[in-house]
Each structure stands twice: as C-alpha cells, then as structure tokens.
Amino acid sequence: MWFSRVSRVSVLIVGAGPTGLILGIELLRRGVECRVIDRLTASVMTSRSFTVHTRTLELLEQVGIVEEFQDRGLRSEWMDYRFEGFEEKVQLDFTRLDSRYPYYRTISQRDTEDILRGHFIALGGSIGWHTELVSVAVDPGGEVAATLRDTNSGETETVRPEWLIGCDGVHSRVAGYLGAEVTSAEYVGTAMRMMDVTLSGCPVEVGGVDYRITRDHMLLTTALPGGLWRVLISGTGDAREIDASAAAFQTVLDEHFGGAVRLGTPEWTTVFRTRRRTTSRYRNGRILVCGDAGHERSPAGGQGMNTSMQDAFNLGWKLAAVVNGHARESLLDTYDAERRPIAEQVVAGTHELHSVLMDHGRPVPERLAIAQEPGFTERAVGRISALAFGYGQATQKGTYSGQLLAGVSAGDRAPDVEITPRLRLHERLRHGGHTLLVTHRDPDTAADTTALVMGVRREFGRRVEPVVVLPPGYHGPGPVGAVAADSRRVHDLYGAPEGDAVCLIRPDGYISARCPRTEQNALVSTVRDTLT
User: Fold this and answer.
1) Spatial distance between the Cα atoms of 92 and 99, rounded to a whole number of angstroms
2) Residues 6+ apart with CB under 8 A from 382
C-alpha cells in the first residue's frame, strides 16, 4: 500500500555520483547532516569517465583520500594528437605543471565512485538508492518541500530540507526549479561510440591518451587499470543508428594500426551524443545545482567529472559554514559568482579542443594548424588540469582594502610549496577551515606575530588555523608554534620583500587575501566578513 510520511534534514542531495558524494563528504567532515538519494537501484558498474586531473587530485589530498586514487589509477603524463598524413604529432605534456601531481590519474569512474562512496559511508553517510525526486514546492517564506518516491515500493515521502542540492546530472530535475535560462548547442552530426576491452598488439604506450585524427573520424585509445583499454571512436552520423559492434570497432583499429591490434571481448560498450550547455544561475533561494546539472561540454580532455567535483569542493565548505551558523547566507552567492564563469571557460576550452579532435569533415591540415598555434598546448594543459582557473574578482574579499603585494593574490589557487623536506604547505590545509599563513622574517616583531596568532585562535577557534613559517637561519625569539623553513621558497612566494606578511587561504585552497603583516587588521576584518 502506498503511503506518505514527512521528515526533515539539513541538506538533501539528489544524486549519488562523484559530485554528490564529494559534496556529502565535505558536509559530513564539517559536522553537517545530509541525506543523499539516487533514483538508481545501485551504483553504476560501468567505467564512463576515466581521468582525474591535477587540481582534483590536490583537492582530494585535502580530504585525505588521494592515496587511494594513486593506488588504483595509472599515472598518465601526456595526450598525443596524431594527424592523418602528417609525421609530426602535437603533445600535451602534463609533467611541467607546478604541482605535487604533474600528471593525471587514469581510473574508471566506477572506481572513483567506489573510493568516494567508501569515504562518505566511513564518515557516517548513507545513500538512499531507488529513491527519486518527484516534485518540489517552495512556500512564500522560501522553505522547500521535496516529494520523494521509492521506486521499488511506491512509498512516497515529503522531506523538508533546509537546503536542496541537485547533483543529478545533465537531465537534472532539481535544475528545473531554478527558473534559469539554459543555453545549449548540440554537436550535430557527431556520434560517439566507446568500449572497454582487452587489446593485443597495441603499440600505444601506457601512461597517456593517444588520439588519431582523420577528416571523418577520431580514434582514442588509452590503457585502463586492470589490463583493459578504453577505445572511443567519434565520427559522423546519428548516435541512434551508429554501428557499435566489435566488428565496426575492429575496422577502425585496422585502418590506423594495419591489422596489428586485435580486439578481445568487450566488457562494456556505449553510444552517446554530446553538446555544450550552460545555465544562467546555480541558485534560487534554498535550491542549488552542482556539477552537470548546471553545465555540459564536449568530452575532449576529460574535464566534465573533474569540473563537477570542483564545483562540489567550492560549494561544500560554504554551505557547511552557513548551516553551522559560521557564515551569512550571502556567502552562497559567491558559489554561483565563482563557479559559473569557470564552467563557461571549460565549455569554451573543450570546444577549442573539439574543433581539433572531432570537427569531422573539416580538412586535417586546418585542424593541425590550430593545434600548432603558439600557446595552444600550454593553454590546453592549464585548462585540462584546471590549474589555469582562478576566481579573480569574483572572490569575496570582504572589506579588505589594505596594501596588496605583487604575486599571488585573492582568487588564485594557493600554490603548494615545500616548507621542510617533511612538510608541504598543502599538508597544512587538510583541517577543513581557513588557514592564516604568516611568513615571519623580523625577530623584532615576534611578539606582534604571537599576538596575532593568539587573537585569531581566540576569536575564530578551529575555523582558522594559523601557520607561522620562519626563514632558514632565523635568529631571535620564535612565535608560538612556528615552523623553521629549510629554504626561502615560502617567503619568496607568499611573503613580503621585507618584513612579515600574512595570507588567508580558504578551505578549498584558494587565496582570500594577502598583505604585509602591518595590514593584518584589514585582513582579519576579511575573516570576520566571511565567518560570522
């Protein structure tokens, strides 16, 4: 018999994919109750996305689970573009990135979700499978009521969440309640077919992605963990009519490898179309969307899942701060202001890659010319890794109006740097709150720096973690808890040319403000503007 019940929850997350799981993890580790539901009966066992890029790896380190991705994924350092009729190739080289992770991890989405789900459950979370969102109602006061249905039993339930977050993908039901405008364009006449399969005789090296480009199609091959290969063919036609048989795949492989590569038995095959899409807003009151619910792009470069997970890292700490009463609700406005422009840049960047890889029918020399333009490879690597993206003027700077320093600034990703051989800066960002980095040089200001540290701890508690770094060879009294650096790299990157400097780093690893220590009162006011 069908019946309905009413329940309440702080945050209801619709969608248990990588985006929803990251958001759930970020909330739970900050003490925020959340409920995750998914209309599927269980996790998907197919691989789908297969890359976890540099910036995502950095963020996973802050959560404490990057090693699991290292263990289960393959280290991949390059993407090679090979053009029919031309000897030269264009290579995207990820080894020069300024990160502890100058590469990407090739790992199936199935394993990515398995790692994230395990961590989410270890934090006390659970997933309500076979539970779909039926409808949403918002009363005049802005309170949300979501009607859910158990697809197995037919039982319905009304949930009154403080916040409803749609992590439910490109066909998001939650997004329909934003009242947003959607800009969409399909790559007409382009169809993708993809399989995971064993290959024999494949000359492609393990450790990267090989693209072979002709006028009418593109062949992608890359090794996956466990001895399988991902084979993707993009060509002209209607995805509903395209031949995805093993024989059809073999024909394309023969064209490129002269019959040397033989397909085994496919583990999984799929056919899909692709488009680019952006949404005009990510928030309407207490309803928000995250990930593919707000944007869609060409699969070129493998940025979709990574962009979506990075959305969740941005939203997670902000939503937790609001729910816990540590920040004003207006902080959530910065989620839309920061992440939507990033999505637009990703859509534009993948479209440029698409024009090289999958603009079928366009002459190959024209596409090679695009890839050989000055700056193309550097631009592509920066975008794909996501290290090129920052928040710039969109970042909330509060009332800070003090003296700025040259170099890294508000909105920039905080670069990792070695403090000692056993300690890197990013290791000090794992506590989940803001980090106040003090690069201390002057022995005569030790008492002032100590007073700053004690004052921050007294006012903000564990929400702001001070880190004081002394230069090598420092002589004088050290502030409480200070760490002596083995080189001047931290001071050169984050400090002032002379004297002490302070830098406020957000929980998601981006800089909120940076200034000489003499401007510390203005910087502390920025913390107060963010954290009530």
Assistant:
1) 16
2) 388
User: What is the crossing angle of helices 304-323 and 333-357, to 10°?
Assistant: 180
Query: Look-up: residue for tokens 């004003």?
Result: 328
Instruction: Give me 153's structure tokens.
Output: 């039993």
- Give the H or E element holding residue 21: helix 18-28
Buried b (16+ CB within 10 A) or exposed e, 354-385: bbbbbbbeeebeebbeebeeeebbebbbbbbb
Q: Phi and psi (nearest 5°) for 104? A: -125, 160
HEC letters along 214-274: CCCEEEEEEECHHHCEEEEEEEECCCCCCCCCHHHHHHHHHHHHCCCCEECCCCEEEEECC
Instruction: Determine the Cα–Cα distance for residues 434 and 150; give it in Å rounded to an integer.
Output: 40
CA angle 411, 34, 22 (to 5 degrees): 45
The predicted-structure confidence for 59-78, as pLDDT tens digits, reads as follows 999 999 999 999 999 999 99
pTM higher than 0.90, yes or no? Answer: yes
pLDDT of residue 217: 95
Q: Is the pLDDT of residue 401 over 60?
A: no
Measured from the Cβ of residue 8, the count of other Cβ atoms closer than 10 Å reads 12
Say if residues 512 and 463 touch (Cβ distance below 8 Å): no
- Tell me whether strands 156-166 and 287-289 are parallel, antiparallel or unpaired: parallel
Cα-Cα-Cα-Cα dihedral sign, residues 97, 305, 50, 13: positive
Bridge partner list, 514: 503
271 has a pLDDT exceeding 50: yes
